[in-house]
Amino acid sequence: MAIYGRGDFREAWLEKGKSLFGLQRFEECKEEFEVLMGSWGSADEAIRDYYEKALFECRKKARVDYYGLLELPSVCSEMEIKKAYKKRALELHPDKQGSEEEKTECEEKFKLMGEGLEILCDQFKRDLYDEGYDKASIEERVAAANRAAHHKHHNRGGHY
Asked: Which of 20, 92, 132, 137 lies 20 to 30 Å from 122 when distance is taken between CA atoms?
């Protein structure tokens, strides 16, 4: 009621965000706070924080389950990942499928398994994935880490 009476009532919006998170209604929270971000909310750190957390949770929910695709538990070794990838790749190879529909479906899964192998066999990427990041966010973070390392290397000063 407070939000409808006064659209910029910060405390009411924060309580609504807290409630939506408690109910795991992240998409609704994202949509509601997106409207705020277009107006007064972008200047408020707590409002921005709810919006960014809701965005993160929506992306996390929509991401590919690489462990499930490879039929692995999340506590597995790199060797187990590679072994599972080979097994699943033989099962899902598009050339081994009968109909065009099956080939198309398997091509997509085959591609996703390759992405999963790349992410899960790189410890930095796997840690990010396990924290809940999706492929695009992982790529952004890897690029940022590479830029930071490159910048640090070039700013050491002096010659060897």
From this structure: 92
Q: Alpha helix locations (H) across 121-159? A: 123-131, 135-154
Neighbouring residues of 130: CB distance < 8 A, sequence distance ≥ 6: 74
> What is the rounded distance in angstroms from the CA atom of residue 66 to the CA atom of residue 125?
12
Q: How far apart are CA 2 and CA 128, in angstroms?
A: 39
Q: Give whole-number Cα distances, 54 to 50, 91, 104, in Å.
A: 6, 37, 33
The pTM of the full predicted model, rounded to 2 decimals, is 0.75
pLDDT tens across 30-43, in order? 998 998 888 888 88
Q: Which residues of 18-49 are buried (b: 16+ CB within 10 A; e: fewer)?
A: eebeeeeebeebbebbeebbeeebeebeebee
Q: Show the domains of the chain with their CATH numbers.
A: 2-62 (no CATH), 66-154 (1.10.287.110)
Tell me the one-letter amino acid at 57. Answer: E
CA distance 96 to 64: 23
**From CA 65, how far away is CA 113, in angstroms rounded?**
10
